Amino acid sequence: MSERIGISPQIVSIRHHLHQHPELGFKEFETTEFLRRQLRRHGIQVLDTSLPTGLIAQIDGKSSGPRIGLRADIDALPIQEETGLEFASVNNGVMHACGHDFHAAALLAAAFWLAEHRDLIHGSVVLVFQPSEESAMGARKVVESGALGHLDAMIGLHNSPSLSPGQIAVGSETMMAGCVKFDVTLRAQGAHGAHPDHGTGPIEALASMVLALQTVVSHDVQAFHPAVLSVTSVRGGNVWNVIPAEAGFLGTARYFRKEDGELMEERFRRIVQSTARAFRIDADIAWQELTGPVGSDPRLASIVEQDVKDYAELVPITASMGGDDFGNYRGIAPMVFASVGSDGRSGHASLHNSHFVGSDATLRPEAEFYVNEALSVANALEQGLPDDTDDGSGR
């Protein structure tokens, strides 16, 4: 498909409004109501769900056919904005520093266009305005709610400030990493700092574990397999002359291949538990899989790649060790995921930066991606795809 979407001043104003009124994950109450009003004004059906925030809407076409999901995340980050924009955040300490205001406004633009061109839709388009992507729990909540029903494909995107507006990266390669959060608590026998022999303090064990864990990627994961294990916070004690009875650390692991994630968990647990035994203390390990790797079903990716060239500049994928909970839609339906340029200038502010802005020019290619790929994927599914099913991870 090569439908072109005009971005009206209304859509730009909507993006500015969303940027100015950001809300944190699972607290997007005003954002949800604002989106609901916009959809209903354009005669778009908003489905009843059990979701406290976020919403799902549906546009039915002229005939029965595939149900295609389009997802936009709507939450902001706990960051104090420093952009100096006229429409900068009015909510102290909260900012759309990841561009989810773009995503939501672009999906609205796509929804308005699709509602006016229902004759082009064979089947239904399901609009998913998803809460709390930043917590990596929002997609999981949407799936668990059962509100999606059956989907034949799920399409998502994220803006990329390293690309210019009008550039889109999509393909069969893995784009974003699987993401794990780990938290280790060490329990020991505290003691006076002058008499360490009277206890089994956890500080030395913690230091040994943190150093040993750096060997997991360098020694155990294959050299050409992308993986990261980072300890990001340590805790333990608050008095200068007391050896604490408890300490701990937390951090993240990232991987592109499922087998590497499993290997990292096995080695992580072995190092922590064996070190704890050596120091005669106990260790509690919380290893939380937040999201799997994000990529596109190869069959759909091939179709989308060719289609994108009709309305945008297709550029190579630059894989990221960052995560996106879009990966939690894997298993629900074949997935397509893209990076859409939002800046591209030298010295641009990155995502999750207090100076991140992004260009309003991003709205058009994002909206066009939503519209064109909803139509193209639906047409491809109607015609039938090869049977070699993929899990949507790109691997």
Automatic annotation (TrEMBL):
Its cofactor is Mn(2+). The keyword Hydrolase applies. Pfam families: M20_dimer (PF07687), Peptidase_M20 (PF01546). Residues 178-276 form the Peptidase M20 dimerisation domain. GO terms for biological process: diaminopimelate biosynthetic process. Keywords: Hydrolase, Manganese, Metal-binding. It comes from the Bacteria. GO terms for molecular function: metal ion binding; N-acetyldiaminopimelate deacetylase activity. The Mn(2+) ion enhances activity. Mn(2+) binds at C98, H100, E134, H158, H352. Gene3D superfamilies: 3.30.70.360, Zn peptidases (3.40.630.10). Its EC number is 3.5.1.47. NCBIfam families: amidohydrolases (TIGR01891). This is Amidohydrolase. It comes from Bifidobacterium bombi DSM 19703.
